Amino acid sequence: MNAARLDALDPLAAFRDQFHIPRHEGEDCIYLCGNSLGLQPKNAARYVEEELQAWRELGVEGHFRGRRPWKDYTDHFAAPLAQLTGAHESEVVCMNSLTVNLHLLMASFFRPSAGRYKLLIERSAFPSDRYAAVSQLRFHGLDPEDALVEVGPAPGEPHVRTEELVAAIRTAGDSLALALLPGVQYLSGEAFDIGALTEEAHAVGALAGWDLAHAIGNVPLDLHDANADFAAWCSYKYLNGGPGTVAGAFVHARYGDDPTLNRLAGWWGHDKATRFRMDPDFVPIPGAEGWQLSNPPVIAMAPLLASLELFTAAGPSLLREKSLALTVLLEDRLDEHLGSAVEIITPREPARRGAQLSLRLRAGTAAGRKAFARLGAAGIVCDWREPDVIRVAPVPLYNRYSDVERFVAVLADALR
């Protein structure tokens, strides 16, 4: 079936009209970069203006009055984030930024001992994750040369495989304290089996934490039933919350009221009923909210609320169905028209990826850079990752099947 017919039959087609699409030479761009920065929901400006109006008209009383009182503002995020992560509402919270949340959670869950002290990541981890892991090791007086386990990919392979991660976890065994892994690997686009890898970590006595920056809003998640210990994510990619917007975190219910956990505490994580008594002793809110530090930046969070309402309206099943169809179409058209010129390094099995295909040009890095520049000049927005990867992300909320066909046609022209 051709792209025009698929677009005509798309039950999610109307959601595109809920976003501002950047323009190029008087026409909509082909925007295939939602894995880096999602587009702006049209309701975002209205939601921000409503909070500015509350501030203008109510001042400090905006914490307790108005359309969405600021004191309880994070409550609006619990249900949609729980749906997107497969969690209980008490297990999720909107707060801080991704790496801040990783550090806060590792302060609680990475507790090395003399015999169990190693921290495992994938070798091609997003740099901020590696920086966080190494700095945590050094904070505990450990040598990363000994305590950091980096896995991956086998020689000649484009991406690390689940079986390689399993083998590394088992090899580390009793020395492993924490596996910190991505739900979706940022460079290759591979989706990992969170439940299986968490089970492997637990089997050797370690914990499993997850970076969901490229997974939330992209692939189905089931964090509670997968028994993940903790997770963190940003909200500006597939969640369309705006550049640098407030991130989120998950803490499994079994830890929600554990008094033995180390915690870097702040007053907004204190018991809600007694928070404003200003007592000197910290009493954490049960659940993930107990890891909050400061009151939320409401104006910065408003666009994310506008986006999450669209996710709720669309529903996870239709979004995943369209995501799979978009990447299958992209894969088929690349194979058909550019099979000898382009290597797809994302797994070929649709269930093992999200809304992204990562491409290498067989002609090499220089040819890849040149082709990427030509795509941009033609109004195609995707992204380049060093040293030689073009990442293409057709997002089901606002991308069309015709966007995929247009991308392949322009790339073919660029390579002629």
Helix content: 25-40%
Low-confidence stretches: none
β content, as a range? 5-15%
Instruction: Supply the number of helical segments.
Output: 13
CATH architecture of the largest domain: 3-Layer(aba) Sandwich
What would the average pLDDT be, to the nearest integer? 96
CATH topology of the largest domain: Aspartate Aminotransferase, domain 2
Q: What kind of sheet is the major sheet? A: 7 strands, mixed
Strand order of the largest sheet: 6-12-11-10-9-7-8
What does this molecule look like?
This protein is an alpha/beta fold and 416 residues long. It has two domains: 3-31 and 315-414, Aspartate Aminotransferase, domain 1 (Alpha-Beta Complex), CATH 3.90.1150.10; 51-312, Type I PLP-dependent aspartate aminotransferase-like (Major domain) (Aspartate Aminotransferase, domain 2), CATH 3.40.640. It is built from 13 helices and 17 strands. The chain has a seven-stranded mixed sheet, with helices on both faces. Strands 13-14-17-16 form a four-stranded antiparallel sheet. A two-stranded antiparallel ribbon has the order 1-5. Helix 3 (75-85) crosses helix 10. The model has no long low-confidence stretch (mean pLDDT 96).
